[in-house]
Fold these 2 entries.
Entry 1:
Amino acid sequence: MGQQSERSVSVIVKDPQDCTEAEISKFAELVQLGGEVKREGFKDLIRSAKSLIWLQIDGKTAGVAGLKHPRKQYRQRVFANAKAEFPSDQYPFELGWVYVDESYRGKKYSRHLIENALKSASGKSVYATSRTDQAAMHRTLKRYEFQKEGKPWTSGRDPEIELLLFVREAKLLFG
Ligand SMILES: CC(C)(COP(=O)(O)OP(=O)(O)OC[C@H]1O[C@@H](n2cnc3c(N)ncnc32)[C@H](O)[C@@H]1OP(=O)(O)O)[C@@H](O)C(=O)NCCC(=O)NCCS
C-alpha cells in the first residue's frame, strides 16, 4: 500500500441532524464536484439522509458518501424506470453521493466510505444508482455485493446521462 499506509485515515459518520450548516454546505459542494446536478432542495435531501460519511486523510476532507432515506414515490419511480422486477419497498436505503477527491482516487479509499455507509443500514437492503460510465463505482458496488437490476434508463434531468440500478440484499446480523 506504500504511501497510503503512511497516511492518517479516519472516517466520521454523522446523523445530518447533528451537522452544522457549514458541514451540510461542504457536503453538498463535494457531492456536486462528483457530478451531482445542482438543484433546488438539494440540501434538504442531504438533511433527510440516514447518515453522512466523511473521509479524512491527514486531517483533510478527502471524500464523502451518504446513506439516503429516499421517499417512497422516488424509490418507486427509480425501480419503474429501471423496469426492475424486485419491489422498491424492500429497499429502504439508497447508497449515494459517493465522492473521492481526484487527488486521492485509485487508492481504494472509497472502501472506507462504502463500508461505513453500509454499516449504517444495519443489515437492511440497499439500492444505488450509478451512471453507466462510472466504471470505478460499478466495480465498487460489485465488491460490496450489489447486483445490477433491470435495464439502463435515461435521466429525466439530463438526456445525456444514462443510469443503472444496483441492489444489495439484506444481511442477517449476528452478535
Ligand atoms: C467512484 C469513486 C468514489 C471511486 O473512488 P476511489 O477511491 O478512487 O475508488 P477505489 O480506488 O476504491 O477503486 C474502486 C474500484 O474501481 C476500480 N477503478 C478505479 N478507477 C477506475 C477506472 N478509472 N476505471 C475502471 N475501474 C476503476 C479499482 O480498481 C477498484 O476495483 P476493485 O475494488 O475491484 O479493486 C471515485 O472515482 C469518484 O469520486 N468518482 C466521481 C464521482 C462518482 O462517480 N461517484 C459515484 C456516484 S454513484
Entry 2:
Amino acid sequence: MRTYVQTVLGPVPAGELGRCLSHQHVLFGYPGWEGAVLAPFRWEDALEQAESVLNHAKERHGLQTVIDATPADCGRKVDFLKAVSKRTGVNIVASSGYYYEGEGAPAYFKFRMAYGNAAEEIYQMMYREVTEGVGDTGIRTGVLKVATSAGQITDYEDLFLRAAARVSAETGTRILTHTQAGTMGSEQARRLITYGARPEHIMIGHLDNCTDMDELLKIFEQGVYGGFDRMGIQGFTGALPESRRLAEIVGLAGSGYADKIILSHDSVIRMLGDPWIYSEQDAKDLSRWNWTHVFEDILPQLQKMGLRPDQAEAMVTANPQRFFGA
Ligand SMILES: [Zn+2]
C-alpha cells in the first residue's frame, strides 16, 4: 500500500518527498506579535521573501519538501503556506497543535480545562484539521506538533500529547515534538507510546540541545525517530556548539541509529513582528542559521567524521521518507 503525506496542496506519496527539511518555519510569531504595529504582516512582501529562500534551497541543493512545524498559536497561516508552495513547487506540510505552555498561548484551553472539556476539544481540533482542514480553508495539516516545558510536562501540555497520540493512532498522522532545553524527550516518547501512538510515527525534536547521551539513548531505544533539527543555531536560546551535536550524531549512528536520525534547521523565513535587534555575538552565532547549512556544511562534515555518504544523505532523504511511511 502506498502511503501519502498530506501537504498544503494535497497528498504526496511518502516515497516522493525527496530531500526534506523536517522542522522549519516559513513564518513564526510569538503569541502577541500582532501588537507590533511598526511591522505589520504584508502578504506579498513575505511571499516574495519566502519564494527567494525556498527557490535558492531548491535550485542549489534539491530541497523538495518542508515540514512547517509552526504551532497554531505561533502565527501559523496555512493559506500563506499554500501560496508559497504553489509559487515554488516545494511541498509544504503544515502542523496541528499548540506550543509549550511558557511561550505559547495557553489561556484559552486552560480556561476550558476549568470550564469545559479541554481534552475532548483539543482532540476534535486536531482530528478536524487533519481530516477536513483548518477553519474554513479546506487546507489539511499533515503532522501533529506537541511541545513540553524544560524539565517538566505540564498538565496542559499532557492534554496535547494525549490528543495527538489518539489522532495519530486513528489516522496514522505522524507526530513531531518540541523539547525545551534538551529535556523530557524520553518521557515524551514514553507517554505518546503509552497513549497509543506507534513509536515509528513519532519524531522527538530538538535533540541538539541535549548533551546527555544516556537520555539520547533512552529516546532512540524506544524505536522513535530523533530530530537534530536546529542546525545553524548556536548560543541563541541555549543552543549548544555544533561540535557537540555532530559528535552525538556520529556516536548514535555508530550505535545503530543512523536510520532514525533526521536533520533540519528550525530556521524561520519571516519572524512576525518588529525586526530583531541583536548583538555582534548573536549575529556571529546565527550566521549559518539558514535553509541550506545542513546540505552545505553538515552532511560533508558528518562524512569527514566517519559516516558513509549514503548514511549522511539518508538523514535528509530516506529517513524522513521512511518516517512518513515510504
Ligand atoms: Zn521549531
